[in-house]
Design a protein that fits this description.
Strand content: 5-15%
GO molecular function: quercetin 3-O-glucosyltransferase activity; quercetin 7-O-glucosyltransferase activity
Largest sheet: 8 strands, mixed
Structural class: alpha/beta
Oligomer: single chain
Family: Belongs to the UDP-glycosyltransferase family.
Helix content: 40-55%
Organism: Saponaria officinalis
Radius of gyration: 22 Å
EC number: 2.4.1.-
Number of helices: 19
Strand order of the largest sheet: 1-4-3-2-5-6-7-8
Shape: globular
Distance between the termini: 29 Å
Number of strands: 14
Protein name: Glycosyltransferase
Amino acid sequence: MEENSTQKHYNNHNNNHAIMFPLHLQGHINPFTQLSHNLASKGFTITFLTFEHIHQVISQASKCPSNTPTLNSELDIRYRVVSDGLPINYDRKGNLMEYLEWYLNGGLYDHLEKNVISEIVLKSNPKVNVLIIDTFYPWASKIAKKFGLKCASFWTEPAIVFNLYYHVHLLRRFGHFDCPDTRTDPIDYIPGVDSIDPKDLMSYLQDKDPSTNMHNLIFQAYNDVRCVDYVLCNTVLELEPNSISTLQKLAPFFPIGPILLSEPAKRAIPTSFWVESDCSEWLKPKSHGSVLYVSFGSLANLTKNDVMEIAYGIMDSHVDFIWVLRPRTVLDGSNDLLPIGFEDEVRGRGIVVPWTDQIMVLSDRVVGGFLTHCGWNSVLESIWYEVPMLCFPVFTDQFTNRKLVVDDWKIGVNLCNGRIIQRGEITEQIKSFMSQKHRKDLKENISDKKNILQRAVDIGGSSEKYLDRFVKEVSDK
C-alpha cells in the first residue's frame, strides 16, 4: 500500500482515527474528501482509502506522477492507495455486470478484510476506532464489527432518498414497486414524505425489473445500514425536517451538510477524474448573470439525440454559455456529438469544455443559471452560490432531487415537460429562464435556502452541532 501523509506531527487531542472509504465515483469522492478535512480539523487522524485504478486516473488528470505526495497541511490526513483485489488494468466499466457480480459475491469484501483493513488497524498510530464508509458498500457493518470499530455510514444524497429506500418494503406492499401492475397514483404512506408521484421516485424504484445487480446492491446496502452505529447525511435539518425527524426515530441519523468541496480539501486529497479547463478568463468580460452553465455531472449518460437537441436549443437561444461535455457522455463512443457549424455559430458567446472546476464557475457572479442533471452535489453547490437551476434529471436520485428543487423549494424550473426533449422547447425554456424577470422569484427563493445552509454550518448551527455530537460520541466510546 502506498501512503502519503499530509502531516507528520499533528497533536491529535481526541485520539480519534477514522478510515474513510468512499464509493469510487466522482460525486461520492468529493463530499468524502471534504468530510475528511472537516473531521481532521476537529482533531481526527484520517486514513483515506483510494483504489489503485482510481488513483491512476486522478493522477493523470492532475498531471502529477502517481507517486507524488499530496501537499502538506496542518492536518493528519493519510492518503492510501490500495488494490481492490483485481488487476489494475481490468476494465471495470467495460465489464460492469461481471464486476458487480464479483463485488456482490464478496470478492471486494474478502480482499479488503484480509489485505487492507487488517493492516491499517494493526499498524496505525493512533489506533483506528471508527470506519466511515459509503452507504453503498453492503458489508459496512460486518467489516467494522470484524475489527471492533464503530461504523458510520455516509449517505451523500438527500434524506428523502434515504427515506424512500429505507421504506421500499412499503412501496412493495402497496403496489408502487416490484408488482405486475404497478400503481401510478401518488404515494402518500411513506413516513416523513407528504406525497410523491411515482415519476419522482429514484430511477431504480421506477424500473420494471428489480432483479438486476444494481438493485441487489442497493437492497443489500439497506439491510446493512440498519446495523451501523451512525448515519451521516449530506443535508441540512431545516431543508428536510420531515424526512430527517422520521429517520431519527429509526436510526442515529445526523444531518451534517452542506459538505462542499473546498480548495484546502482538494490540496490534501486529489479528487478530479478529468483535467479541469480554466474558464476564468473567458468569464471575465461577461456581464452579471448573463452566462448559462451547462453540466450533466460525472456519471449520467445521455443519448446522442439528447445531446444534439440540447445543442440546437442552446445555439438558437443566443445566450452566453459554458457547456461541460465530458468524455463518455454518450456511451456508444460517438465523437461527433455537436451539430455541423455549432462552434462557428456560438463563437464568442459560448465554449464547450470536457471538464472544469464547477465551484469556480458557479461562484462567478456572471453565471446566472445552471442547466443541470440535479445531482445532489450540484444542487447544494447551486444553492450555496445562489444560481437557479434549469432541471434535466437523467437517472438514480436525480428525479427525486428535481422534485425538491422545482416543486418543493421553487428554486428551479424544468427544462422540458416530458422525457422527450425537443430543440424548440429547449430554446424557449432557456430564453425564459435566463430573462431577468423570470429569475427574480427563483433568486429570492434560492437566497432564502442559501441562508438556511449558511446558518446550519455556522457556529451553533444545526449541522455543526450534529458533527460535534458525532465527534463527541465517537470520542466517548
